[in-house]
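Chapter summary example.
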Amino acid sequence: VFKQSKSKFQNYFISQHKNKDIQEIFSALFFANTMSKELKSKFSALGISHLVAISGFHLSILGGSIFLILFYPYRFFQRIFFPYRNSKIDLFVISSIILFIYMNYVNYPPSLIRAFVMMIVAMFLYLRHIEILSFVSLTFTILFILAFNISLVFSYGFWLSVLGVFYIFLFLHIFKLSKLLSFFSIHFFIYLMMLPFSLYLFSSYSSLHFTSIFVSMIFYIFYPFELFLHFIHHGYLFDEYILKYLELVKIESKEINLIYLALFSLVSLLSIKFKKLIYILILFTLFLGVGNENIFN
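The structure predicted for these 297 residues follows.
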């Protein structure tokens, strides 16, 4: 029964698109299905593979959206019937249950497992007034997950997800900026820090690769809005623009040697203690992005 309902639900979403590539994109975006090799290469060249493959980024957007949708209805009933309850904890539990059901629905992608466990750990630390955004909590989460599923050691998706969180923590650890400035700056920072790993694993590149910074910012609104449009059977509205964006891609090859990647990783770890080393990493990735494709391979 579950498989049948899942299949019907997917068909309802995917049937709203006529183009095969668009069908594959939204099938991957909402249901963690695989895309063709050609499409994967295009998204790698655009630097937005992380936006199409379901990850902790998507889970955080979904969790935040669920929290906001439930917040005001919950507060209304709370004031009348159960004012003694802690609204944040209750909404967190409800959101977590919904997200867990969704994870089961898409068959537990490694990056979602990491994000979900870290979310639980974060709430645990929050309730005990322990610092949440720390490398200790990240390390604990990694070890906790691997203790239950050691095969994730060999998962690229899992480690890319971990790296993303590591560099978010590193940014917050080094740079003390206002919330608004941090929002914009952190996307540039994460793009630069993840670039060497992206090129090593995929080597696909294009002149539009840097646009992933701005696409990532827009995605916070695009993702839940597209989900809403699909529920009301209007998911096709942006298909034309997505196709035009993909048509602009001219795939090139840019590689990075494993030795350079290892040095980059080492300096990243040392930056926790010696903060000024971060500027070496930034200069390296800026040069990597604009330099000749043969310099680092």
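To summarize the output: The chain is about 70% helix and 0% strand.
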